[in-house]
Every structure is written in C-alpha cells, then in structure tokens.
Recover the amino acids of this structure.
C-alpha cells in the first residue's frame, strides 16, 4: 500500500517507519526542510531505541522517503495520515491550525479518491469538521475520514470510520500488528483518546496524593507503589508523581525565580517547562534526549554536554529520568560543582546511593525525611 504521512515529529516518524516495516511504501512530508534533509541521510530528530537502525533499514529497502513537497507524493497514495501537532492555545483548547492546514494542502492537490487518516490527538467533532472542509472545497466525494488515534504503548488499534471500504483499507493497512482492533464511529474514536488521557492524568494525580501521605506518615512510596502495581486492575506504570514534585522543589527552596538548577533527564519535558515557567535558570543534561529537547525547549534552557557540567554553579540538582549512568557519576565532583549540595530525586533513582556520605541533602519522593 502507498501511504503518505504528513508531519515528521515523533508520532509521524514512528508510525511511518512502523508501517514501512510492515511492507508498505511510505512517503513522509514535512514543511521543515532541515528536518527532511537530516532524515534523508539517516539522522533521527529524537532518540528512541532501535529507530535509527530501522530508519536506515527502510531507506535501504526503498520503503520510506522524505519530502517537503506534498503534491509530489499524494497522487500515488491510497491513504494519507495526518500526524501534526495540536498544542493547547492560551485558553487551553487544542489548536487545530496544523491539522486543518494539512487537510487543506491535501485537498488542493487531490485528484483521486483517498482515505484520510487522522492520527493527531483531536477533540470530538474534528472528523466532521474536516469532512465539511472537503465538501466546501468541492472534494467531499473524493475523501473518507478515518480516526485512528495514537496510543503510546501501541497495545490496541482504535479505528473510527463511517465508510465500509475505508474501514477495510485501514484494517488491511494494520495487518501484521499483534494487537486487538476496535472499530467504532469517528466520534467514539476521538473521545476514546481523550478519555484515556484523562484517566492517566487521574492516576498520576492519585500517585501525587499517595506520595504526600507517604512523606507525612513515614511510609515509603517505592514499597507502596510495588504493592499497588502488582494488582492487575491498577498496574505500576503511572504510579509516579508528576507536577507535585516540582511544587515540592519550589517549596523547599523558598521559590525558584532566579535560581540556577541542574536537571538530569529530559525524557519528560513537562517538569522542565514547569521549572522554567516558575522563573528558574535551568541547565539540563540527558545522554539520549538532549538534542531533541534543544529543539523543543526555550532557548533560555541550557543543555550541558555532561551530567557534571550541568551542575556548574547550580543551587540544587534535580533528577527527572532514571538513566542508570546517573548512578555512576562522581558525586564528589558533583558536590564541588554545585553551590549548594542539594539533590531532589523525582525518580528515587539515587535513594540507595547514600549521598549523605558525600555531603548532600537528599530529597526523594514519597520517602519520609
């Protein structure tokens, strides 16, 4: 099958390479010429285990190519997948500008029947809104809209579709994926994604509250999380605190405005954004995700070449990702680089390292002090 993927970010590129691995011929389109040029020579814009090797394998087999020109690849496509961003606006509502721009660009150069797959996270009613745009352009009979929301673990395939032929095509496109498929309306598929996100956020908020109780009562969050996580109705994956950890750091330091902080770990950028928004001067390091973070985070957030370098002149070290190499750093050297020997460990990665013998004040999450 010939597939066009619009948007070469994380979702677009991982899906493009996944479908190429299944045997489809995938043309990836992005308006960022620099990104396309790097992908052309096998350079990934982010780190994900095995993806760089998969990219080069698919390029060698001729199953994936990259372009900035949609018109050059859309004519041969049986389906097009929209994988662009939908960031929140100032009012918190998702900004669908890129989704509509992608659809309009496809509409302008469309000359044959096409299945348009929406992979971006969009609110309920977006499929209908896209259908209306194609109708207004006089091409409503040339396109079928299918909602296939992206779920991070890829442990199920949700297909929202109102047309039988389009459903068969998208079903065939996913042949070879060992995961259950759920067929439903566009509206149900769109809501399923939002409901999943909301439920995960609820679990994280619950974990934050349990962490607070652990700190007040002398319990250990690691033990509590293990006990809860072994319940198959709960699971361990989201029993880690999130934003509350940043709030704890702010409280312990008496505010963050103007304070220089060292951060280890950039797999999850949300806590770094919180720190920056609260006025902190952040210098971060990550052995894998640093390059990708540099493109996403504000320019004022520094990216250091090593974990130790990130600590230069910082008033505290904050651990946000549990890379094992962080445990092997010379903490005597880290102590010399920091202005204040304070470590806030959001992953409890260093809880058993005994940092006190190196002269540190150590603060984990959900661990009584």
């Amino acid at each position: 099958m010939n597939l066009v993927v619009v948007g070469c970010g994380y979702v677009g590129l991982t899906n493009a390479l996944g479908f190429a691995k299944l045997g489809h011929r995938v043309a990836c389109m992005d308006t960022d010429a620099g990104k396309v040029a790097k992908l052309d020579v096998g350079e990934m814009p982010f780190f994900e285990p095995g993806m760089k090797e998969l990219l080069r394998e698919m390029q060698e087999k001729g199953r994936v190519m990259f372009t900035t020109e949609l018109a050059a690849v859309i004519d041969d496509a049986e389906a097009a997948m929209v994988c662009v961003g939908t960031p929140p606006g100032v009012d918190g509502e998702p900004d669908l500008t890129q989704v509509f721009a992608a659809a309009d660009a496809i509409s302008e150069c469309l000359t044959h029947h096409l299945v348009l797959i929406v992979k971006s996270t969009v609110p309920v009613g977006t499929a209908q809104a896209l259908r209306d745009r194609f109708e207004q352009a006089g091409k409503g009979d040339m396109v079928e809209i299918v909602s296939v929301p992206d779920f991070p673990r890829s442990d199920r395939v949700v297909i929202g579709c109102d047309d039988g032929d389009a459903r068969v095509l998208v079903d065939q496109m996913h042949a070879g994926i060992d995961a259950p498929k759920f067929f439903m309306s566009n509206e149900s598929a769109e809501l399923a994604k939002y409901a999943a996100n909301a439920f995960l956020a609820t679990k994280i908020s619950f974990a934050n509250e349990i962490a607070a109780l652990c700190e007040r009562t002398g319990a250990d969050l690691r033990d509590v999380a293990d006990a809860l996580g072994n319940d198959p109705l709960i699971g361990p994956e989201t029993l880690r605190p999130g934003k509350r950890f940043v709030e704890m750091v702010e409280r312990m330091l008496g505010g963050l405005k103007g304070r220089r902080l060292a951060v280890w770990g950039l797999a999850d950028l949300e806590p770094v954004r919180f720190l920056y928004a609260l006025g902190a001067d952040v210098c971060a390091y990550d052995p894998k995700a640093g390059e990708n973070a540099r493109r996403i985070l504000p320019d004022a957030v520094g990216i250091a070449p090593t974990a130790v370098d990130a600590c230069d002149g910082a008033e505290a070290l904050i651990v946000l990702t549990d890379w094992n190499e962080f445990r092997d750093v010379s903490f005597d050297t880290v102590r010399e680089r920091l202005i204040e020997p304070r470590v806030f460990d959001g992953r409890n990665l260093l809880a058993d390292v005994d940092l006190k013998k190196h002269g540190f004040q150590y603060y984990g999450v959900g661990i009584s002090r």
Notes: The first helix runs from residue 10 to 21. The mean pLDDT is 90.
